[in-house]
Each structure stands twice: as C-alpha cells, then as structure tokens.
Automatic annotation (TrEMBL):
InterPro entries for the chain: Aliph_Amidase/BUP, C-N_Hydrolase, C-N_Hydrolase_sf
Keywords: Hydrolase
GO terms, molecular function: hydrolase activity
Any Pfam family matching the protein: CN_hydrolase
UniProt superkingdom: Bacteria
Residue ranges of domain CN hydrolase in the record: 15-262
Membrane-crossing residue ranges in chain numbering: none
Name the record gives this protein: Carbon-nitrogen hydrolase
Organism: Gordonia paraffinivorans NBRC 108238
Amino acid sequence: MLRREHVPTIMSGIVTLGALAGHFGRDVERGVAKAVGIVEAARRDGVDLLVFPDATIGGYLGDLRCPNPAELPPALSPDGPELAAIIAAAGSMTVCIGYTEADGDRRYNTAVCVSGDGILGTHRKVHQPAGESLAYAAGDAFGAFDTPVGRIGMLIDYDKTFPESARTLALDGARIIAALSAWPASVTDRAARLPADRQARLFDLYDCARAAENQVFVVSSNQTGVMGSLRFLGQAKVVGPGGDILSTTRSKGGLATATVDVDGEIARARRVLNHLDELRPDTYRALCAPTPASSASSSPALSPQAESGVPDLS
C-alpha cells in the first residue's frame, strides 16, 4: 500500500467539508462496503474532505468500563484489504476513517487519513477513558500532516476533551482538525432524550471550544445507534474558526457539510486577535506540575469511581 508522509496541497480556496454520523458495527465486510458506498456518494456530491466516525471498520467497544476480551473489535492491518478499499474509493477526495489497528501483539484505536494516493496520516488515540486501556494500547503523539485540502490533524473522541491535544495540532500548522468519535450518552446517568444528555452538551461544547480557541475548522464525526451497553450521540458537525456550528446532523444519522474558504476564514478570524501568535508560554505553569488539590493524596473523600481507578462518566 502506498504511504505518503507529506503531499502538496493541490486544492486551494473553497472546499466542501463533510462530517458523518452513522452506525457501524462488528461486521467488517459490511462496514467496508457501507463506507465505500458513502465515499462514492460524497465524491459525486463534491465533498472534498469526508470524516467518518471512530471505529467505522469493526465497531467500538460494547462496554466502556469493563470491556469483554472476547468481544473486542477485530484488529486489522493498515496494509490490509479493508483500508485498500477505502483508498481505491477515495480517488481525489481526502477521507479520515477509524478502525482498530493491529501492531504485533498490540491493538490501537486508530484514525487514518487517506486519498487515492494512499495513507496521508495516522493517529493513535492518546487519552483513554474508563476501561479502554484494557482493550487498546495508548498512542503517544499528536501531529499534523499535509493533504489535498490543506494541513490536517486528527483527534479520536476523548482526545478532544483535553485542550492541549488540539493546541498541539494547531501549533503544528493544522488548519482543519478531524475529530473522529464513538461518543456515547452518559454511562451513569443517561437522559431519556439524547439532546438533553449531559454528554451531548459536552460533545458540542468541546467541538466549538477547540475550534474557537485555536481559530481552526473542526470537522467532527460520531457513531449513532447502540453497541452493547452504549448508545451513541450522533451530532456530527462542521465548526468554523470562530466556534460557530456551520452544519450539523443533530442526534440523527447523516452527513453534515459546509462549503468554506478555509484559508480565508481562518485569516479573517485571526485578523485582529491571533490566539496562536499571542500565546505566553513563559507565564504558564508546567502542564505536568501537580496542583495543590491533585497532590493532596491524603484526602479521605474518594468517590467509588476514584477508588476503583475509573473516572465518573456521568
């Protein structure tokens, strides 16, 4: 399979960005066929960048806190026929898609960005909530890469909770952040209606905040439907560099698209206030330095989740 670390930007000016909300389960062959059909339809509709959800090929975990080792998503080779089919369908389009990557005896929750020329960039999920570390190894880096629609960086669901993730990509020149998710409703206190769920609010909040604070575009996808005990939110969207939602699927499946001038809109957003140029790293505390609250290990008021090492996902 052809791999290219950097490719020249062959498109400039106005592009159409697309974020998909859809359900993808364990059946790899069916998932690949469905993804290829969506790519082909999007290409006919003039989409230049299409972002699929996390775990499109093979599905996500069925239980986030205690994943069953016998029911994990199938781990696939990046050189296998599954990604080759997506690459062949992509043609001149840029496509970001998620799958479980096999690397020796390790498995990663991985996003890959491809075009008809091959793999343009890869991201292994860094931040792992709850029991995800029981199913996947963790990635260890964030990096941007060149594509036909400009310089892109990728995040996988929980990664976008941490501002440092998107900021690292923006400082590496990313103009567009593809945020691929398998983001469920609250595990501990699910609302009767998805739009009212606490995680639905946070999902939108993080997308808009990461775009606004870095003055970049965020193309945010998500799974829909149910996998095991998890019910996914949908809410795929395209967010502009001012933090405004340009297009969204809300809680339904579908494709959110926006036709934009990426460089022009970013230049407009940064014309007076340029957040990246105005950073003051000399004044910031080391990000790894413990705060007084987190270093107070003698505190007896531990929640059941803290005692078990599992964060509260409510």
